[in-house]
Design a protein that fits this description.
Structural class: mainly alpha
Distance between the termini: 62 Å
Strand content: under 5%
């Protein structure tokens, strides 16, 4: 019985990980099906793909830490929270790559450095800064000796701002907009 129980847990883990991966890459699959990649600048496409993937990961982050039994049971809370931390850092890297690659694609640092940009880009920059502070906080909260409960409280208070910022940035900045030109 022990063998079948551990096999059931491995199967449950595999299905949940597969579902997670499918959700994360679904925006890329939809872009591919739509023919969005054809004939476009490859660096710009990687930039947009990194943003889409980072966005999908960020939107799933609350589910990983919400302690839903269906998600937590096969993994255990400790593993799930380590996965939450690792994917959060991955999302931060992908989202940081997005503006850098767009600037490279455009051949200009205006997108990164200019202060005369439309408001959605300031929202994007603010959200990016907040996400980077989150990532640094996750990496350094032990080194900075921030008590875990304080870190957790700040994390819970600021998370909605990141989710809202990412959402409004995504809907206000379309790939064909003139904001990034």
């Amino acid at each position: 019985m022990l063998i079948s129980g551990s096999r059931q847990i491995r199967v449950a883990r595999a299905w949940r990980l597969l579902l997670y991966c499918l959700i994360v890459v679904s925006p890329l699959i939809l872009k591919l099906i739509d023919g969005f990649y054809s004939g476009r600048d490859p660096i710009r496409e990687v930039a947009l793909s990194s943003a889409l993937t980072g966005f999908a990961i960020i939107m799933l982050q609350p589910l990983l830490s919400a302690r839903f039994r269906w998600i937590e049971h096969p993994f255990g809370l400790d593993r799930l929270l380590r996965f939450h931390r690792m994917t959060g850092l991955l999302a931060a890297v992908l989202i940081l790559l997005h503006p850098v690659l767009l600037a490279i694609s455009l051949g200009s640092t205006r997108l990164l450095l200019s202060l005369t940009l439309p408001w959605p880009l300031f929202l994007a920059k603010g959200t990016l800064l907040l996400a980077l502070l989150f990532a640094l906080g996750a990496l350094l909260h032990g080194v900075l000796k921030v008590p875990f409960q304080r870190w957790l409280r700040m994390h819970g208070i600021l998370t909605p701002f990141i989710l809202i910022g990412v959402f409004f940035t995504a809907i206000s900045l379309r790939s064909d907009s003139s904001f990034s030109r």
